[in-house]
Amino acid sequence: PGMTPAWLSAVLLTALLGGASGADTVTQTEGSVGISQGDPLRLNCTYQFSFTTSLFWYVQYPGQAPRMLLEDLAGQNSGEGIREGFDATHETKDKSFHLWKASVELSDSATYYCA
Ligand SMILES: *[C@@H]1O[C@H](CO)[C@@H](O)[C@H](O)[C@H]1NC(C)=O
What we know:
The protein has 115 residues and is an all-beta fold. The chain is 0% helix and 42% strand. It has one domain: Immunoglobulins (Immunoglobulin-like, Sandwich), CATH 2.60.40.10. The strands form 3 sheets. Strands 4-1-12-7-8-9 form a 6-stranded mixed β-sheet, with no helix packed on it. It has a 3-stranded antiparallel β-sheet with strand order 2-3-6, with no helix packed on it. Strand 7 and strand 8 form a beta hairpin. The chain is globular and about 40 Å long. Bound molecules: 2-acetamido-2-deoxy-beta-D-glucopyranose (NAG). Pfam families: V-set.
């Protein structure tokens, strides 16, 4: 913000591969995603479950415990979670729950988990 050039304000976002249990799997954007302040962000999340399930995005800011960003309970956005300007739509047809934000800030630098 302020005097900081945009190129210095590159936002580093880390996402880790989602865990797998049995035949049910969650796959999310892997590794680090570096984007500039003010840019849109999309982190991908797809799943393979035999039935409709509840989905979550968690965010872990540096030095803090993970917190729930948003949740979808069996196809219904619960409205719970800290959100922080993020949104995700549960597409049951595509089996996806991509995380999206229109314009990221430096403070969005964190680890994001799809579960
Ligand atoms: C998300 O998926 C789209 C379409 O497959 C791809 O173009 C994009 O690079 C992916 N984004 C990330 C951050 O993995």
